[in-house]
Design a protein that fits this description.
Helices cover 82% and strands 0% of the residues. The chain has helices spanning 10-42, 54-64, 68-101, 103-118, 125-132, 136-160, 164-172, 177-214, 220-229, 233-265. It has 266 residues and is an all-alpha fold. The two termini are 19 Å apart. The protein is globular, with a radius of gyration of 23 Å. InterPro entries: MetI-like, MetI-like_sf. It is a multi-pass membrane protein. Residues 74-255 form the ABC transmembrane type-1 domain.
């Protein structure tokens, strides 16, 4: 059987042409921000006790990155973020599916979940610290709970937003439960689920770095807080830059993964 390939429409060609332009605009904005910061800090418009020139941050990064201490801090923070995010993802998606499959449970539990989403879970850190000790455990629990809630809520909303015709289509072809979820539900819900997954990762980063900043013995957040208390602005911003770069890289990976999953599932 010969497959006829569909030629791209004018709208699709225009959309493809806008992608490199958007990338250029993003890079132009980044370069402009760096240039403004460099100028304002060099001229004294912004006090260097608050912000140092980006060029000095790069110099400090080049000196800090090869050290063993930096490697240990990054390894600790990355491990905590990934473990927290994985727990949030593994528990959040099934929870969202459960809330969708059992509407009564969704109506009952959704207010509690939304309240937990709005409540600052950082308040529970002293209790967890007393129970689990000064280690990565309390940080993982808080960051995982912060990551889980948006993933569960967006999964439930995404599945509720699927058009009824897709359910009827799956039933008409006698799709198995595996085919129903992998070939119908998840591809249709992916555009709404993945923003929640990205948000879950962002909250995992926030929870991890914030907790390390407050009270920890190791990690990028701990080191940034340490240099903040030591009034070492250059090193503090160097570690903040590390968090920004890691977040951008992982966000790019998640965006690529979203496109790959949608392509493979369809």
């Amino acid at each position: 059987m010969k497959v006829i390939e569909k030629s791209p429409t004018v709208q699709e060609r225009r959309k493809a042409a806008l992608v490199p332009r958007a990338s250029l605009v993003r890079w132009a904005i980044i370069v402009a921000i760096v240039a403004v910061l460099e100028f304002t800090t060099r001229t004294g418009m912004v006090s260097q006790s608050l912000m140092v020139p980006p060029s000095e941050i790069l110099i400090r990064l080049a000196e800090i990155v090869p050290t063993d201490r930096f490697g240990q801090d990054v390894a600790r923070t990355l491990t905590t973020i990934l473990v927290s995010f994985t727990i949030g993802l593994v528990l959040g998606v099934p929870l969202g599916i459960f809330l969708w499959r059992v509407p009564a449970a969704g109506r009952i539990l959704e207010p509690f979940i939304v309240t937990g989403y709005a409540m600052p879970t950082l308040l529970f850190y002293p209790v967890l610290l007393a129970v689990m000790g000064l280690n990565a455990g309390p940080i993982i629990v808080i960051a995982a709970s912060m990551s889980l809630i948006p993933i569960a809520l967006t999964t439930m909303v995404a599945l509720n937003a699927i058009k009824p015709i897709l359910h009827k289509l799956a039933n008409s072809v006698s799709a198995s439960p595996r085919q129903y979820y992998l070939k119908v539900l998840f591809p249709a819900a992916t555009p709404l689920i993945f923003p929640g997954v990205k948000l879950g990762f962002i909250y995992a980063v926030i929870g991890t770095v914030a907790m390390e900043f407050i009270l920890a013995s190791q990690g990028v957040g701990f080191r940034a807080g340490f240099y903040y208390r030591e009034l070492n602005t250059a090193d503090m911003w160097a570690y903040i830059a590390v968090v920004i770069v890691l977040s951008v890289l992982v966000n790019g990976v998640l965006t690529w993964l979203e496109k790959r999953i949608r392509r493979d599932m369809l």
